[in-house]
Specification:
A hairpin with a 4-residue loop joins strand 4 and strand 5. This protein has no helices and eight strands. An eight-stranded antiparallel beta barrel has the order 1-2-3-4-5-6-7-8. It is mainly beta.
Length: 142
């Protein structure tokens, strides 16, 4: 299987953004909400998101991250990420490595290529500054 980079999400907690609830059940407690940006060759825009988490063990949690991307060309793309985050470096406990899968949906025909395709992500969250950077990849279609 080959993966192609779709776009990066740069997210930050801001304490002022209203909750962005998931389309289904909430999995864990609402930790925070925020704003950010989506940047890629085929997609750019502003992001609003929330982070629900469920602690599994010290330094390990399950994530649910619903949100919406308002693209620079006026489209709206909803997303819901599911994954895990872990403190992977005892010397830097503020850094959390993370990975998982994204579900992207939209009613906009220009971005229908995002729907019904496997999308995975990997990234890092810095608890000291409340910022995360996630890279999204999609399976290349044959």
């Amino acid at each position: 299987m080959e993966l192609t980079h779709l776009f990066d999400l740069a997210l930050r907690y801001d304490g002022n953004t209203p909750e962005c609830p998931p389309p289904g059940a909430k999995e864990g407690r609402l930790l925070e909400s925020g704003e950010g940006s989506a940047e890629g060759a085929l997609l750019r825009g502003k992001v609003r998101w929330s982070n629900y988490e469920h602690n599994l063990a010290p330094g390990l949690c399950r994530l649910q991250i619903p949100g919406v991307i308002q693209t620079d060309d006026g489209a709206e793309i909803q997303f819901e990420a599911h994954g895990h985050a872990m403190q992977s470096d005892a010397l830097q406990p503020n850094l959390w490595a993370s990975a998982g899968a994204f579900l992207l949906t939209t009613q906009n025909a220009r971005y229908s290529w995002l729907v019904n395709r496997p999308v995975v992500w990997t990234g890092e969250f810095d608890a000291n500054n409340g910022r995360a950077l996630y890279r999204l990849y999609a399976q290349t279609r044959p």
